[in-house]
Amino acid sequence: MREKLGFLGILWLFLMFNSSFGRFVVEKNSLKVTSPESLKGVYECSIGNFGVPQYGGTLIGTVVYPKANQKACKTFSDFDLSFKSKPGGLPTFLLVDRGDCFFTLKAWNAQNAGAAAVLVADDRIEPLITMDTPEEESASADYLQKITIPSALVTKDFGGKIKKALSNGEMININLDWRESLPHPDECVEYEFWTNSNDECGPKCDSQIDFVKEFKGAAQILERKGYTQFIPHYITWYCPDAFILSKQCKSQCINHGRYCAPDPEQDFSTGYDGKDVVVQNLRQACLFKVANESGKPWVWWDYVTDFAIRCPMKEKKYTKECADQVIKSLGLDIKKIDECIGDTEADVENPVLKDEQDAQIGKGSRGDVTILPTLVINNRQYRGKLDKGAVLKAICSGFQETTEPAICLNGDMETNECLENNGGCWQDKTANITACKDTFRGRVCECPVVQGVKLVGDGYSHCEASGALRCEINNGGCWKDTRGSQTYSACIDDHSKGCKCPPGFKGDGVKTCEDVDECKEKTACQCADCKCKNTWGSFECGCSGNLLYIQEHDTCISKDVKSEVSWSFIWVIILGLAATGAAGYAVYKYRIQRYMDSEIRAIMAQYMPLDNQGEVPNNVIP
Ligand SMILES: *[C@@H]1O[C@H](CO)[C@@H](O)[C@H](O)[C@H]1NC(C)=O
Ligand SMILES: *[C@@H]1O[C@H](CO)[C@@H](O)[C@H](O)[C@H]1NC(C)=O
């Protein structure tokens, strides 16, 4: 026991020593008081390392300081206090005092009492610190993962001002703003995950592995598509020279005390040693290096989750053999990875672990990494719960606006702002199409793509389909109506834009096309005998008496036209027959005459010569 504490003491000192030279950066967001006038302004607060800060977003609320339980170490229901906001009211930000219990317990109690965020007022005058989760493995630690409200530490001075204003009966409205908590310079987000292969360190290790499993899918999509550049990192310590040959350093360190990790069970006599952890960490770092060289850095996520599932310490499978099986199943080159690990007993530097130790020291805006696990996004340390939704939200807020990938806009990231009043965006209720899209930045109004047809418009007041199939979608945003079996549309299915009322209608073609009353407007059915009756989209024209309406000529003509024609035809035939008969008779008479004539002539010819003899038609008489 003494031995163990002694060694941990050294490690701890070491960490302290490192930190005193480095810099621990407190990640901040801004807190803006919008009322009262006397407090108006922007104040700094530090983001708690638990709960879900709304990276990329804002939260507006009104501050309440509880009458009792002001340190929030007990549940508020014991005091009959509730901070649930009333319908239509602003969410409640609960101001509580620092001290007496863990920050996390304060947040948990505030959340259970209905607060939307918790502001902890510092109890001493000092620069802001990061409120962290308790290191101890306590029985109640399971609530840590259930904290979903954001938390912020404010200075003692600012806390005092709020309390004073509240006691004067003033209403204090605050806008918590995380939009600038992470830099978002371009369309690629660089992030690092400082982790550990140790799976026996209690709730912290469990939640770390759960996070990796849960986040793997998103991480791989982002990496494959080139949206992110991810690097895993591992913290190691080194053994002070004086202790290199001690039993402790020998069991905790590799490469002659150069790279050490604490004993997983914190007991040197049983189970795995610290050096087993260092070697597995090194294997993971090497695997990433080899996978990255082969152009597939995202395989690291597969390896780490598979290793955690297949090779846990609990089942005594935390071994090279087990690790190699996983590596083999992922099709990676074991030889290259072994080369990268090198001889861990040798008194030499390992280039990979050397780089890891160098990377631990803060650079630029990042600060030293001292909390395990730690996520660093765009060179800033992420604060909050390690949870898929919360981390994705933070990564997404690291993209330059409008360059964020689709995964940032999918279901997991929804803010559900579209549910209320459709987020104020354009929608077509009958076609069930909306321009409202929930994103991690809040809702955006953007004309959607429906069945492959892109709608265009401002997304707020109008969206309309364009292109060849535009009338298929929401009728191209044009007017359309059906009555009975009649349907009229103002959309013309060609490549043109816009809407035009069909013939027989007038209007803008978008919202309305009104039937034209052709009768009243005197555009049709205007002949003297016409009787006009307007119908929807057209008109009916009747004619008085036996007349028929001919639309092309807008005129009435007699219905008997056809029979008159036939009667006159018959008359023509009768007359024709009569004429033929008469003619026949005339011919007959003529022929008789001619016959008689020729007979007489023949008789006479016997008596005297005739000069036109040849004329006698021999064939005339049948
Ligand atoms: C991963 O590979 C790319 C290209 O091969 C290289 O530019 C990058 O530095 C590598 N990253 C790490 C962390 O080794
Ligand atoms: C509208 O569409 C959404 C998904 O696109 C669906 O969940 C919802 O039930 C639809 N509503 C109606 C009224 O059809």
Automatic annotation (TrEMBL):
Signal sequence extent: 1-22
Superkingdom classification of source: Eukaryota
GO biological process, any: protein targeting to vacuole
GO cellular component: clathrin-coated vesicle membrane; Golgi membrane
Keyword Repeat: yes
Entry keywords, A to Z: Calcium, Cytoplasmic vesicle, Disulfide bond, EGF-like domain, Glycoprotein, Golgi apparatus, Membrane, Protein transport, Repeat, Signal, Transmembrane, Transmembrane helix, Transport
Keyword GTP-binding appears in the UniProt entry: no
Residues of the EGF-like domain: 499-513
Membrane-crossing segments per the record: 565-588
Lipid bilayer topology: Single-pass type I membrane protein
GO molecular function: calcium ion binding
Subcellular location: Cytoplasmic vesicle, Clathrin-coated vesicle membrane; Golgi apparatus membrane; Prevacuolar compartment membrane
InterPro entries named in the record: cEGF, EGF, EGF-like_Ca-bd_dom, EGF_Ca-bd_CS, PA_dom_sf, PA_domain, VSR_TRX
Family, similarity comment: Belongs to the VSR (BP-80) family.
Name of the molecule in the record: PA domain
